[in-house]
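Lecture notes, continued. The same structure-token format from the folding unit now serves as the input rather than the output. Read the line below as a description of shape only.
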């Protein structure tokens, strides 16, 4: 876990990363920004803000991995009504389903899958039970499934939605949209307004809209510009055997001191491990030198 976080903190804007989250999801995206709390990636569907605490593993991704991603196949099951059957609520559920599917289809690089036959009926009968819905749609070629239910809360009609990832059973998202107060049917044919439905669709995918998608259609991923493969991903100064050298050279004393704080304990731990494993003194010396140098390089790369 610590190594994953160190790699994340060294990520730079414009680079690509392959991230496996603790909930099982895999994300390939372009680094937009990093902070002391997390990393922000641009995926084909939009931006993802990933806290360090959610990262399991992370490595550098290639442009081929980025451009080779297929569109997300998202199944939106018919919405289920949890209130007493009535013509108005039946209409609400039908229209709500159409609006959710339309909003999801407007997300870049998303292909909406409309179930029919027994899968549709089975998924709808599951309500918001994701485990039940997962079984109902298990035979379909999809990445994410969305289920919904309409109910009444505090005198308002609420559309509750939930999403699950087929390959990551621990991953799920929830969102809800309230109908306008005092309305007996869906105003204008939908819950709230289109912005609320759009926000719910993005929340169900775990993304936020990317400004470049809002201003112009997204260019095909395969034709996007990428840095040359020969472009170095790591500053050569990290290999100087002085902890914090790149940071101090860039007049960033805090990062330099952090590098020292990382390198010294790491080198000590590696030397101790070498001492317990080495059979002869020359082996101990060699292992201690190599371990100390590796600790310095790692510390410099993390804090550069």
């Amino acid at each position: 876990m610590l190594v994953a976080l160190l790699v994340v903190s060294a990520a730079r804007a414009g680079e690509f990363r392959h991230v496996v989250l603790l909930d099982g999801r895999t994300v390939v995206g372009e680094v937009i920004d990093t902070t002391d709390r997390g990393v922000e990636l641009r995926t084909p569907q939009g931006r993802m803000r990933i806290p360090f605490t959610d990262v399991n593993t992370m490595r550098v991704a290639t442009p081929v991995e980025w451009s080779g991603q297929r569109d997300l196949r998202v199944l939106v099951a018919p919405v289920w009504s949890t209130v007493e059957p009535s013509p108005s609520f039946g209409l609400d559920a039908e229209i709500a389903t159409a609006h959710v599917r339309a909003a999801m289809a407007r997300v870049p690089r998303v292909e909406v899958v409309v179930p029919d036959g027994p899968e549709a009926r089975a998924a709808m009968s599951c309500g918001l039970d994701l485990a039940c819905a997962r079984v109902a749609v298990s035979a379909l070629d999809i990445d994410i499934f969305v289920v919904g239910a309409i109910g009444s809360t505090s005198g308002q009609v609420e559309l509750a939605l939930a999403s699950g990832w087929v390959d990551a059973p621990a991953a799920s998202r929830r969102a809800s949209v309230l109908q306008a107060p005092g309305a007996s049917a869906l105003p204008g044919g939908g819950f709230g307004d289109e912005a609320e439905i759009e926000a719910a669709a993005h929340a169900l995918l775990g993304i936020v809209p990317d400004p470049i998608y809002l201003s112009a259609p997204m260019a095909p991923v395969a034709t996007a510009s990428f840095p040359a493969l020969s472009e170095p991903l790591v500053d050569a100064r990290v290999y100087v055997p002085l902890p914090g050298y790149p940071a101090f050279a860039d007049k960033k004393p805090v990062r330099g001191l952090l590098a020292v704080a990382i390198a010294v304990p790491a080198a000590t731990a590696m030397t101790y491990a070498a001492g317990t494993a080495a059979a002869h003194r020359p082996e101990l010396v060699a292992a201690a030198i190599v371990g100390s140098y590796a600790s310095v390089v790692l510390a410099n790369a993390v804090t550069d």
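Point for the exam: The chain has a mean pLDDT of 76.
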